[in-house]
Amino acid sequence: KVWLMNPVIGVGPGAFAGLYHQIKTPRTSGVSRYLMDAQYSHNEFLELLTAFGLAGFVFGLCLLWKAWRAIRDPNYRAGLVGLGAASLVDFCLHTPLIALQGIGLLAAGNPRVPKPSFVGGFLVLGLTMGLFGSPIFSGILKGQAESHLSQNQFLPGDLRGLETAERLNAWDARFVEAKADYLQNLYAKTNDPVWVRRSDEVFERAMDLEKTDGPKRFKKASRISGRLPENHSPQYIQQVEDSWVQAKKALPFNAFVFFQEGLILTSIGQLTGRFWLPDGTGYGNKGLEDFKKAAELEPNFAEAWLLYGHLLWVSTDPKKINKVKGPARESFQKALDVYDKWKDEQRIDPLEKDLVSLQSGELNVLKKELVR
Predict the structure, then answer these.
(1) φ and ψ of 21, to 5 deg
(2) N or C: more exposed end of the chain, with fewer CB within 10 A?
(3) Which residue numbers in the chain have pLDDT < 70?
(4) What local confidence, expressed as pLDDT, does residue 296 receive?
């Protein structure tokens, strides 16, 4: 499915991880249906095909065939056959050590042993430092800033360090995003609009570097939604709604996206007084649909069932109340059933734990409503 998005030249290297979220199929067993990731296609040949299309796939096979014909040592050929067979079911060549072994096997072999060269060693050292020195040094700077931030410390050198890390790794979205997060925290600390403007600009640059990264769209929507208490003008609310549309487009099977949007929309309804509207366009109506969608995507999403039932129950339309009492109770019962089924399960993923968990206050509300 990813390959068919651009079969001739491919979707680009590294894009599979993001596009996978748009084409994944549900699991039929276990706690969750869609909470799984795939960084690669788990097949080097399919990975080559999806990243570079038919053009890159044919070019790569031609290179391998040319190298194969140049190899005379049968042991080298046997090693390559084994590596190729393993690559049919795994992403071996994405492991640096195995990739280097593969490159070594492609060499025709040279019986002469070269003499040690000071100049050659110096060049190798320079190349190694150039390739790996910058990421290591930048990682140290990023780690220091994040460590201080976790302790609620804002040291003058941290922002400069993140800017240095960004310059040294201009194409690595992780360092750009770390700087955006630091600026966002500076805004939360000072309420200075300059920091929030700079933070948004930097975060947009991080998203431009990873255009298929759905979680970044999710994070952007959450970031700007957090500022609604300070700014709930119609223009800003529209910006928030648009950001959630983009997040859902990038992560159409992620129940947490719909759930969080439901929370934001209901809060907008409370801020604007447009919670329930007769024509169904109120923010409460939209939140109701989001919680329903989240529960449909992940039937074991206890809190989604709870809030869906809650919004059904508190609908202010008198004509609707009697009709929704039954479905609301059913939704409450599903939430309680999910919690009771999985509450003692320890060997599940932390995200799945979030799906099935309920707070003590929520449990009290459920039990109270179910005994009415």
Answers:
(1) -65, -15
(2) C
(3) 108-111, 316-324, 371-372
(4) 96
Residue 119 confidence (pLDDT): 85
The position carrying tokens 């788990």 is: 42
Report the 10 Å Cβ neighbour count for 310. 20
Query: Cα separation of 368 and 363, whole Å?
Result: 9
Cα–Cα distance list, 203 to 108, 122, 184, 246, 337 (Å): 47, 39, 10, 15, 41
* Residue 142, CA distances (Å) to 79, 129, 134, 139 in order: 40, 19, 12, 5
218, 222, 180: which is closest to 202 by C-alpha? 180
Q: Which residue do the tokens 């060269």 mark? A: 117
Comparing C-alpha atoms, which of 193, 203, 255 is closest to residue 227? 193
Q: Which residue has the tokens 């509450």?
A: 343
What secondary structure, in 3-state letters, does the chain show?
CCHHHCCCCCCCCCCHHHHHHHHCCCCCCCCCCCCCCCCCCCCHHHHHHHHHHHHHHHHHHHHHHHHHHHCCCHHHHHHHHHHHHHHCCCCHHHCHHHHHHHHHHHCCCCCCCCCCCHHHHHHHHHHHHHHHHHHHHHHHHHHHHHHHHHCCCCCHHHHHHHHHHHHHCCCCHHHHHHHHHHHHHHHHHHCCHHHHHHHHHHHHHHHHHCCCCHHHHHHHHHHHHCCCCCCCCHHHHHHHHHHHHHHHHHCCCCHHHHHHHHHHHHHHHHHHCCCCCCCCCCHHHHHHHHHHHHHHHCCCCHHHHHHHHHHHHCCCCHHHHHHHHHHHHHHHHHHHHHHHHHCCCCCCCHHHHHHHCCCHHHHHHHHHHHCC
Tell the residue number behind the tokens 């769209």, with chain if given: 217
37-41 long-range Cβ contacts below 8 angstroms, 24+ apart: 40/16, 40/91, 40/94, 41/2, 41/16, 41/91
pLDDT at 323: 54
